[in-house]
Amino acid sequence: MKENITSRIIELESPGLIKTVETEIVPEKLKSTAIIAETIYTAVSPGTELGAYKGNPPLRPGKAYPRLLGYCNLAEVIHVGDQVQRFKKGDKILTLESHRSHFVMDETDFAILIRNEIGLKKITTAYLFHIAYNALLKGEAKNGSNIAIVGIGTLGMTALLLSDHFGYNTFAFTNLDVYKPEDRLWKSVKLFRKDEKSLMQRLYEVSGDVGMDLVVSTSNDWNDWLLALQICRKGGTILVIGFPGRSSLPNFNPLDSQYFYDKQITIKACGYSPHVEVPAWDIRYTKKRNMELLVRLIQENKLPAERLISFEDSWINIEKVYAKYMDRKSPLFTCLLHWR
Predict the structure, then answer these.
(1) Nearest Cα to 40, choosing from 72, 88, 84?
(2) How many degrees, rounded to 5, is the angle at CA 92 between CA 37 and CA 5?
(3) Which homologous superfamily does the CATH classification assign to the domain defined by 5-126+280-338?
(4) Which residues have CB under 8 Å from 29's CB, separation 6+?
(5) Is the pTM of this model over 0.85?
(6) 6 and 24 in contact (C-beta within 8 Å)?
(7) Which class would CATH give 140-269?
(8) What is the number of other CB atoms lying within 10 angstroms of the CB of residue 77?
């Protein structure tokens, strides 16, 4: 490839201000191990992206703006350097690149080669599932485990679908109107309102007097954190993939001894899997192996990723997409952005 390529990148300059930044990719100046890919789809991560868009405190130390948005990118390889062995032109790859039309990466950078092009739209959501999958791995979930999902947003839905797929006893906690009698999901997943009366008594009745072994906390709300502390059984574990109290202070002790100490609860931060190329006997569950599994489950229709895609739109309308989330009256999960 000799022609230069203009990459269009969505960038958040400051809260509420999105710009499209253009950069030139010059193939002749790239390393011999570099590839160029053209984005086909990206998936919106509503919690992370809307938090930045609204100006919530940053998740990590450092400069908050300008910043890139998104991390679920499915693309086609359109150029490979002379020494690239892992990919060829025309390959479809799943990466953690942000919302952008084209990008350059080294062949050693993280990417999943999609060998079977079935369900490319659904596959784009795989990393959203990976965050919840990492939580289940860290919780060491077992057959018969009682697993509570607090908050049924996008990550909550991925945790719920994964827990149900693996056959765990799954309990969902939300005040959103997600129940539909004809939906087979709710025949295996037990659904509770977070403000339900006599909740603890009913929980013990339906869990065999065991309680919740694992609680996946997906919410930023302190009331949801309190609920997680309350429903977690003695000796249980809270798996955190949300950001409790991201923009406010609680009106209670979030490590109240009646829960944390008396029940000997374990709290684990989740979502990260190592990106290393090592034999399985050294590290079994790497990011790459996990993602390859999830892609396969989605392609085999064992993991209903289509439930995660609430709507689709062109990347050009990203601001309208965010506005739709801000004005939502009913649950919205991810939006699939089209780049071609």
Answers:
(1) 72
(2) 15
(3) Medium-chain alcohol dehydrogenases, catalytic domain (3.90.180.10)
(4) none
(5) yes
(6) yes
(7) alpha beta
(8) 22
